[in-house]
């Protein structure tokens, strides 16, 4: 029986029945999913998955969307072979599971992916996006990695890095008004701290009526009331990448 007080609501919304247009490959010690645009480009985006891992169809759907918008999109397995969270798991065990999957300890893998993108794909301008656990990882990378140009954190878990705000690169933060694990007062505080300390461009945007995961976990065709916000979130993400890459 799952624990009723779920520490992460990543399972709400819909799991897409989607196969993906890209392909899987092995890069050093990491498996990746990569999708390339029709025309050659020197722009790439690293896609950081949520707790459901690099094979989640929803995440590949977004990677393919980025490729359709002209980017090399790469989604590595940042759990490096460890099992992704499953819906059948007991939420009571979530904290222990999370201890071995730290969003702030992905630097080694990011370095491998950056090297691959530059040497094998000809990428010169590289950004990063991420969802939930991956959104927190984006914030971590924007605080410390000099080789990335920009980032989009989609409902990134603020508590992981809530005391650090000196971003190195332009960062866009997407939040949902009705997110169970990211209360609006935390978002307000994040915005206040960024205003005080951040020297680069940033934006914090809250999408009305939406819940955690809305950009990649909800289907606009069966959630018509959410459709404008899902589309707006995806468009905002791509516009931000277009602006800074």
UniProtKB/TrEMBL annotation:
GO terms for molecular function: hydrolase activity. GO terms for cellular component: cytosol. The keyword Glycoprotein does not apply. It is found in: Cytoplasm, Cytosol. The keyword rRNA-binding does not apply. Residues 31-245 form the Dienelactone hydrolase domain. InterPro entries: AB_hydrolase_fold, CMBL, Dienelactn_hydro. SUPFAM superfamilies: alpha/beta-Hydrolases. It holds the Pfam family DLH. Keywords: Cytoplasm. Transmembrane segments: none annotated. Belongs to the dienelactone hydrolase family. PANTHER family: CARBOXYMETHYLENEBUTENOLIDASE HOMOLOG. This is Carboxymethylenebutenolidase homolog. The gene is Cmbl_1.
